[in-house]
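Write out this protein's structure.
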Amino acid sequence: MKRVPLRQLLLCTASSSTFSSIRSSSAFVSTTSRVNLPKTTSHQIHSSTKIMASNKNLVVDPFCFRQFNEHDSSAGYQGTVFNVSIEKFEQVVNERFDPSNLQDGYAPFCKHIFIENDFTDARVCVLPVTKENEHCLRSKYEARNGKELPILSRYFDKELLLKGKDESEVFPVAKYLDLILYSREQIIKENAAMGKEAATTEEGEAESAPWGIVSIKAQDIPKELPMTPITAMRNALGKDHGGSGVPIDREKYMEAHEYWKDHATVT
C-alpha cells in the first residue's frame, strides 16, 4: 500500500468541514432532523484524531451522546441526531475552534460557540406561535434523565405540523449551529452531585479537555436563544435535582418570557 506523506494527510484532513446537530434545552432546546453527511474513510478519521488527541479543546460530553446515532440513547431522542461519529464531530469542531469566538452563557462556567451551518441539512427547532399552528401546541412533564425532577414543557408536535406538508415547507435549514459548552470543573461537580462516573478518554484516563459540549442547537442567528423560563427554574433547584445551582436572574427571566411566550420548540 502506498504511504501518504504526513504533510499531505494534514492538508487533506484540515480542509474537511463536514459533520452532521441538544441538548436541546440549553441545555434546553431540541432540534428536528437527522443529519446525513458524506462518508469519510476510517483512515482519515483515525489519523487526524491521533494528530490532535493531545490538544483537544472541545469534547462531546456523555450528556450529549443522545444526539449521535452511534449511541442507543439517540433512539428515544426527539431532537437532531447526527449520523456522523463523535470522533469525526470532535475533529471538525476542534479544527474550527477559536477561543476568541467564545460567547458568555447563563453562568460563568457556560459558553457558546457558533459555527456556520454550511455543511449539514439540520433544520431549525424553534417556530413562532401563530393562529395557523397554535393547534399543534402540546405540553407534558419530562426529565432529561432519571435523576432530574420532571418539569412541565410546551412544544409543537412535529407530526401535527407536518400533516399534509413537506418538511421543507415548515422547517427552514438552520444557518448556524450553537455548541453549548460547560467547563471541565462544572462537569466534574455536576457528575459528583448526580452520582455519575467521571468522563474518561479512550485510553481510560480522566478527561482533561477544558470544555465539554453538552448540547447542540440548530438556529438562524449566531447568538444564544434565551433559556426557556422553566429550564431557568429547574437550574435554580440545584445540582441534586439536575440543575446547576444558578439562582434565577429576574431581568433575564423576563427577557426569556418575552421571547418564549410567542415561540415554542419542536418535538
